[in-house]
Amino acid sequence: MTFESKNWNSLPEESRFWCFSARYPFDDSKHDFLTNALNELCWTWKAHGQPIKAGFRVIEKRAIAICADESSAIASGCSIDSRMGLLKKISLELEIDIFDRFHIHVRENSSSKWSSISLKVAKTMESGEFINTVANKKGDWNPISKIKGSWLCP
After folding, report:
1. Dihedrals φ, ψ of 151, to 5°?
2. 64-92 burial, b if ≥16 CB within 10 A, otherwise e?
């Protein structure tokens, strides 16, 4: 299951990008909580009192992408800290660590199930797909990427 904020598609391709991956999939019973919490995070996020136009996308119930259009307000310092605080609250409510950078989700092909494996093991794979959590800008991000030729297996 993949879903996103209503404004996701209207955010420019040069929007700043962050992605947070959970070790385990988000429980379906928490869908409404997750949607509401992420909408609140995006709609209330400010930098120096100025609203930051932000949106989110949840990928395969396993990763949360957040983008910020910094054309009117730049996300930095305190504004990023406040976003992280809200994400920590979401993580606690879901009872899933969304800050795990040592595991990645992979599958053999689009009809296979996702598996969470260590980043070290994933870097030895030469085929399959993974949920990509690495990009600087929204336009640079491909949520489900082929392992071969990616940063995992160049």
Report:
1. -65, -20
2. bbbbbbbeebebeeebbebbeebbeebbe
pTM for this model (two decimals): 0.92
96-118 pLDDT, tens digit per residue, is 999 988 999 999 999 999 999 99
Question: Tens digit of pLDDT for each residue in 60-83?
Answer: 999 999 999 999 888 888 888 888
Residues 55, 16 contacting (CB under 8 angstroms): no
Nearest-angstrom CA–CA distance, 36 and 68: 18
Which three-class secondary structure state does DSSP give residue 17?
Answer: strand
Tell me the Cα Rg of the chain: 15
CATH fold of the domain at 3-94: Alpha-Beta Plaits (3.30.70)
What are the boundaries of each domain within the chain?
3-94, 103-146
